[in-house]
Amino acid sequence: MLSPGQTAIHPSQIIQFKKKLLAWYELNHRKLPWRETRDPYPIWISEVMLQQTQVKTVTPYFLNFMDRFPTLEAFARADLQTVLKMWEGLGYYARARNFHKAARIIVEEMKGVIPDDFHGFQKLPGIGDYIGSAVQSIAFGRPLAVVDGNVKRVMARLYSMEAPVNKPNSHGQFKALADLHLDRHDPGTFNQAMMELGALVCSPKAPDCNACPMSEFCKAFLSGTVDQFPKRAASRKVPTVHIAAGIVRKNGKVLITRRKLNGLLGGLWEFPGGKLEKGEEASLACIREIKEETGLTVGIDAHLTTIHHAYTHFKIKMDVYDCRYISGRIRLNGPMDFKWIRLTDIDQFAFPKANLKFIPLIREESVLIWNKKK
Ligand code: SF4
């Protein structure tokens, strides 16, 4: 399904296109640990991690993960907290939760065998078009084209496509084009080659057209309009949410609460707090939110820091306070669990990135009030 005026490469050229792309990939691809195998389990791990995340970030996580959970069975047996701790810092935690759920279903209901067909695989939690096509094509040689951000960018330039790459309803056009070019004899290598070309040569800001094996087919290059593609629809302004959080101290321990499993950052631990109300002062919001979420009355001893963090659809500004416990017993309203922990044990728990930004600060001996009094 091409837009009006967009013609595909002539069928005879498509054969040339595949040959050139695969020859380029053979010589130039990065040697990555998940490319050494056709075992679907490590390939699946890598593809889950690679969604929205760059190769250099993913590689150490992948190696740690394989080290800790060398088989699907070992992964399925692990408890979710351990999995989230291994995932800490990668973001998009729903990926880890769904992957873990899917592994358990395979072990408990499918004799530990990962389905080798797209439809069977797609019934598992967290398997969408991208993961399904990537794992099935790379591990099992299924003829399914993969479309990620890299592939869209390459296709958009090759065909001077008007379809905005950031609009979900453009996906079908990119999928149809990728499918048209797919090498059905070796779809896994072809898909990886397309993604690699986007990552290494046809990069977002500085495509290296002179080194590109596809330049003779590339409409944008041939017409001198590479800088005009891909097209993007104007995105809405990302709102900033102001949050206050407290490090509540009591008897040498601090309070952490666990987010409910469903929803953003589900299952992760954090320091209690929440959003400021309109016109509210951050320290008062901290006291109010802790009372509402945990039932505890606290007092503020010091403002520790302000951190900023960007999620996909919003940004946060978080004011962090050193709080002393005054009174009350824990009555949770929102979080699914709580713990009083020593700061020396904090590494046993998985926290969102925003919390990880100030945890090194509160570890420092002199920062919290109780330490100052020592
Ligand atoms: Fe991308 Fe340039 Fe290659 Fe076209 S010629 S696919 S714009 S790197």
Account of the protein in words:
- Helices cover 42% and strands 14% of the residues.
- Strands 1, 2, 3, 4, 5, 6 and 7 form a 7-stranded mixed sheet that branches.
- Strand 1 and strand 2 form a beta hairpin.
- The longest helix has 18 residues.
- The radius of gyration is 25 Å and the shape is elongated.
- By secondary structure, it is an alpha+beta fold.
- It contains 16 helices and 7 strands.
- Helix 2 packs across helix 3, helix 2 packs antiparallel against helix 8 and helix 8 packs across helix 11.
- It has 2 domains: 218 residues, Orthogonal Bundle (Endonuclease III, domain 1), CATH 1.10.340.30; 134 residues, Nucleoside Triphosphate Pyrophosphohydrolase.
- Bound molecules: iron/sulfur cluster (SF4).
- The site of iron/sulfur cluster has 14 residues, from helix 9 and helix 12.
Please give a handful of descriptors for the protein shown:
374 residues, alpha+beta, Endonuclease III, domain 1, Nucleoside Triphosphate Pyrophosphohydrolase, 2 domains, 16 helices, binds iron/sulfur cluster
